[in-house]
Amino acid sequence: MQTVKQIASALGVGPDVIRYYTDIGLLRPAVGAQNGYRYYDPHDALRTADARVMRSLGFPLARVKVLSGAPCAEQLAALKDREKDVEEQLRELSLRLERLREVESFLARSALCTGTVEDVARPPIHSLYTYGREKDYRAARRLAAAWMKHLPYTHISVKVPREELNDPGFGGPYSVELGVGATDGFAKRLGLDLSPPVESIPAGRFLIEYLRTPDILSISPADLAPMLSLSRRLRRPFLNHSSGRLLAIEDGPQGPVYSILIRARIG
Fold first, then answer.
1. Over the stretch 206-215, which tens digit does the pLDDT of each residue have?
2. What φ, ψ does residue 206 adopt, rounded to 5°?
3. Ranges for the HTH merR-type domain (predicted)?
4. Angle at CA of residue 228, ends 166 and 219, nearest 5°
């Protein structure tokens, strides 16, 4: 027979673990008639070790207590259920890693924010605008609350109206709107509601300009001159509103500076 300290030392755990397991009824040591001390036998040591294994596999202590000494079939069923939980966690971690790498990639593109323009093919993208123009955003904001629960798989979206992008005489600033966006891949995986007021832009050919601005709500044609010039040279009008996104915020001497991209589909 061993004392609390002796069995704890043999198992490599603290005496408090043995005491707690005893208090919740997982262990049932003998109690000395003369001194009231608790004495533990090899059965208690093995039950403690088995409980520690189950705890290390993620079972809560209350569940461990139920499974301790239960029929093997019941323990096996519990392990199968736990296996499913771990597999789901792995899927979530894999998706989170994918998103982390995507955010890293977009942040790295802030180095291009000197007026660089790309002419590229891109998949569909979805945006929900909640701030900017003088209009009723209530429906969009209600849906945006549901979208934002899916962070980090959504992003901050920036809209410039198609009509203003296509107007060669527009002096600016543009009627910029801000909101939450999601790539088509993540929107489908997350099962996001894509009905109006969500604005969905189909796959196609896009012009993307990278720029920095101290005022994200005051973007003007001068800021987008490289992209507008390329659109005119290609003789390709913009087919949709932009679906830009915020890349980074940096503190400058005069205040925050925003690195953004403006992504607009062309005909």
1. 999 999 999 9
2. -130, 145
3. 1-70
4. 85
Backbone angles phi, psi at 249, to 5 degrees: -125, 125
Same domain, 120 and 247: yes
pLDDT digits (tens, 9 = 90+) for 169-184: 999 899 999 999 999 9
Asked whether the CA dihedral 115, 116, 121, 123 is positive or negative, the reply is negative
Residue 100 tokens, joined: 């982390």
Looking at the whole model, is its pTM more than 0.85? no
Binned at pLDDT 50, 70 and 90, residue 9 comes out as: very high
Paired tokens of 14:
């603290």
Residues 114 and 198 in one domain: yes
Domain hosting 40: range is: 4-69
- Domain final residue, candidates 69, 97, 122: 69
- Residue 13, domain member (yes or no): yes
The residues, ordered by sequence, that sit 6+ positions from 6 with a Cβ below 8 Å of its Cβ are: 40
Q: Please give the pLDDT value at position 150.
A: 93
Closest to 27 measured CA to CA, from 14, 11, 36, 40:
40
Give residue 134's pLDDT: 83
Do residues 129 and 233 both lie within one domain?
Answer: yes
